[in-house]
Amino acid sequence: MKIFLWGMMGSGKTSVGRHVAATLRLPWYDLDARIEERTGKLIPALFEELGQQGFRELERRELEAVLAEPACVLSCGGGTPCFFDNAALMNAAGRTVYLHTTVDELARRLENETQHRPLLQDATPQSLRNQLAHLLLKRRAAYEQAQLSLDTDELPTSAVAALVCEYSLSDR
């Protein structure tokens, strides 16, 4: 069984992924962390060095390595399902879940983290919400290809993880 968690930065993919993996006793991977480990560089440095296209190619190669795993939970980078045919590949390989989070909630969660997020590094407190709304608008069609969409704003991580586990164990 493979479970892929999609969504915007700040949607809870990492926290939910850890819970799901622990509950189902599966290996858990964070795609960005795997890339950083493999390259020895942080994501912002890779974006600066390779540009977005180069980073997305590197991300694709790491996704392919995860697809070769027999079973796991993968917390994808926010843009992973939006490039190449990544969404289709993950849909064919396992269960995909979009953790939908509103722009207001994302802005609240990310207001003190913009310096660590390559696509938000120029955001001011005033512009953060607009930048997130623009990015979500661009990504929504890719995210909506997920087999399951969960609204996460009002739910604690444990409840979202329980819903992901329930879905992953169902016959669809």
User: Strand order across the biggest sheet?
Assistant: 2-3-1-4-5
How many individual domains?
Answer: 1
CATH topology: Rossmann fold
Strand count, sense and barrel status of the largest sheet are: 5 strands, parallel
What's the architecture, going by CATH? 3-Layer(aba) Sandwich
Overview of this structure, please?
There is one protein chain. The protein has 172 residues and is an alpha/beta fold. It has a single domain, classed as Rossmann fold (3-Layer(aba) Sandwich). It contains seven helices and five strands, in the order βαβααβαβααβα.
Quick synopsis:
Helices cover 53% and strands 13% of the residues. With 172 residues, the chain is an alpha/beta fold. It has a single domain, classed as 3-Layer(aba) Sandwich (Rossmann fold).
Characteristic key phrases:
alpha/beta, 172 residues, Rossmann fold, 53% helix
Topology record:
Elements: E1 2-6, H1 13-24, E2 28-30, H2 31-39, H3 43-67, E3 72-75, H4 86-93, E4 95-100, H5 103-110, H6 128-143, E5 148-151, H7 157-169
Parallel strand pairs: 1-3, 1-4, 2-3, 4-5
